[in-house]
Each structure stands twice: as structure tokens, then as C-alpha cells.
Design brief:
7 helices; 263 residues; alpha+beta; 5-stranded mixed β-sheet; D-Maltodextrin-Binding Protein, domain 2
Length: 263
């Protein structure tokens, strides 16, 4: 299988989805917003983007399955599966905040082999494939090289429905607030990870995420020289609903601090 060729086809599909999303946004109204769960929203644009992506991905690999956020055409296959977030950052999108993305990954058995994250408003494209480089708009990227925690900038995401671990999360947040240059919350985990991959952030952590939020972005981080794990330090970050992503150099130090509150 030629992962590089597939990756560039996926990038084209993500760009087409972004064009669809931006075009439909012109007529989006509050009445188009549906509530899937607590603080979890969806629009017909999310669903339309997902259908467009799946329809274009299907001919690339005929026997591949789909794991997609809006569950429009989900059917998991035995070996190859596309993992799709058709619009990551829907709340930002609804409010006109230009930080949201399309995220597409290809998983072979349990290994991610292609990842694409496209920032919808700017068109900035982050792409990687197995045994290949990590790219931003076609140019190689790599994670930061900072080694001093006091000099790093971290990203995180706020819990929006699972508050069982809120107190632990706030303790971690307070620690990093006091001991780093700062924390940012973009509202799109896929972009948080892409920005770790290109060195804008030195690390990212969050709990309660789904596989479509992190599959592509975490793979791009790893191809850019970084490291990803769950809060136990294990490589279960795609399906484990916890992720710590870093430049690699700082990973254990960040993990040690998180594990004080998430043992």
C-alpha cells in the first residue's frame, strides 16, 4: 500500500470538505444547531461534511471501514478503517471563532498510518504518513526542542460533559499555570495536536476525548518527532480517552506531574 499517495488524496478530500463547510456556513442559523449531549453540539454541516468525506474516501480503499463522529455511515472493517472528525471545534464554528478543523486518519489493524488535519478557515494543512515526514502546507515540520518546563507553552481542553475528574483536572491546570509560560485552550483537539507537531505548543493534555478527536493529530505529532501517551504513559491515547502529547524531551516530566493527580 502506498501510504504517501493515499495521504495526498486525503489532503485533497479534507480541502474539499473545508470548502463545503465554509460555503454552508454563510446560511447557518441558530435553528440549525442540534444538541447531542451536554455541551455537545452538531449542525447539518457537520453531517454533510462527514458524508462528503466518506463518499470521497470510499473509492480510495474499497474494503476500508469508517469510524466517524456523526455516525452517518459507520461500519468498522477488520483491517483498514478511516477515523473521521468532519468538523472538530463545532462550538467555535457556531460562534464564528475561526479555529476548527477537519481530521482524517487511516488505521491499519491498530496502527495509524495516515493523518491529515486541516484548519478550515486558514486552509493550513498538516499531513503525515507511515515512514514519511510530517508536513505543514507541504513543508517539513518538527516538534519544539525546549527542555525547560518553565519556558514551555501548553495546550489543554476543558471538560465539557465528564466532570467526574474535574477536581483532578483543575489541580493539574493550576500546577502548569504556575510553572510554565502559560496554557491555551483552542477548542479543537486536532489543531492542538497539529500545533504541537509544528512546535507552536510544547505539549497538550486532555481527558474525555474520542478517537476521531486525536487519531490524526497524534500521529502527526509522532511523525514530527514528538511523543503521545495516555496518562499512565502507555500508547493507548487514541482509544483510551486520555492523551498527553509533547515534544518528547519533556514527556516524562509532564507525565510525572499529571500522574500526581491522575494516579
Amino acid at each position: 500500500m502506498n501510504y504517501e499517495n493515499i495521504a495526498f488524496e486525503v489532503e485533497k478530500i479534507a480541502k474539499e470538505a473545508a470548502r463545503y463547510i465554509l460555503d454552508r456556513r454563510k446560511s447557518l442559523s441558530e435553528s440549525d444547531v442540534e444538541t447531542k449531549g451536554l455541551h455537545n453540539y452538531v449542525t447539518y454541516i457537520d453531517k454533510g461534511s462527514e458524508n462528503l468525506i466518506i463518499d470521497h474516501l470510499r473509492p480510495l480503499i474499497n474494503d476500508a471501514g469508517f469510524i466517524a463522529e456523526e455516525n452517518t455511515q459507520n461500519l468498522r472493517a477488520e483491517e483498514l478503517n478511516w477515523i473521521i472528525d468532519p468538523l472538530d471545534g463545532t462550538t467555535n464554528f457556531i460562534h464564528g471563532i475561526p479555529i476548527c478543523s477537519v481530521s482524517i486518519a487511516l488505521m491499519q489493524n491498530s496502527e495509524i498510518v495516515v493523518g491529515e488535519v486541516l484548519e478550515i478557515f486558514s486552509g493550513e494543512s498538516f499531513l503525515a504518513w507511515k515512514d514519511g515526514p510530517a508536513l505543514c502546507n507541504g513543508k517539513p515540520i518538527q516538534v519544539s526542542r525546549r527542555t525547560n518546563v518553565k519556558e514551555i507553552l501548553l495546550a489543554t481542553g476543558f471538560p465539557y460533559y465528564d466532570y467526574n475528574l474535574l477536581e483532578q483536572y483543575l489541580e493539574v491546570f493550576k500546577h502548569f499555570m504556575k510553572n510554565t509560560r502559560g496554557l491555551r485552550r483552542l477548542g479543537s483537539a486536532a489543531l492542538d495536536l497539529a500545533w504541537v507537531a509544528c512546535g507552536r505548543f510544547d505539549g497538550f493534555y486532555e481527558y474525555g476525548l474520542n478517537e476521531w478527536d486525536v487519531a490524526a493529530g497524534s500521529f502527526i505529532v509522532e511523525r514530527a518527532g514528538g511523543k503521545c501517551s495516555d496518562f499512565k504513559g502507555q500508547p493507548n491515547h487514541v482509544f483510551g480517552r486520555q492523551i498527553l502529547s509533547s515534544n518528547g524531551v519533556l514527556h516524562q516530566e509532564l507525565l510525572n506531574q499529571i500522574q500526581i493527580f491522575f494516579p
